[in-house]
Design brief:
Helix content: over 70%
Number of domains: 1
Largest sheet: 2 strands, antiparallel
Shape: globular
Number of helices: 5
Structural class: mainly alpha
Length: 148
Amino acid sequence: MLASVLFLLSIAATSLSAAKGYGATVFGVSLAELPTLWHVLTAVTPVLLSVLMFLSLYTVLPNTKVTRRYALLGAALAAVIWELTKAVLQYCASYFPTYDRLYGSLAGITILVLWLNLTGFSLLLGAEVAAICQEHETRVPRASTSAA
């Protein structure tokens, strides 16, 4: 439940961040005219929400005990990849409108399927990094500090 709420909040924050570039107004206030702190918050908030979302998934879902440090490492990697994916797809959809000519009415579905595929990739890559780091820590014996 927490992950789905964080997912929706991250999408909403990214949408709000993208809307400021188009001169959108919220409650009669232009987003482009807001102070610099607002612009920083709209850039950082989606990343933080994504990290929290992936962290909650990586600590709750596995059928084993996951160290929070490695879950956070995998969540940070997945969140950065996911946010970059969202930014690239947003850029492509905004500045390359010729995909409508190629795919017609299926253009939106094509982009959605691509985004879902890349979302799954970032989710699994972060989980694999967390699992590999966790496994490496449990397999590597600690070096003894006493001299023989």
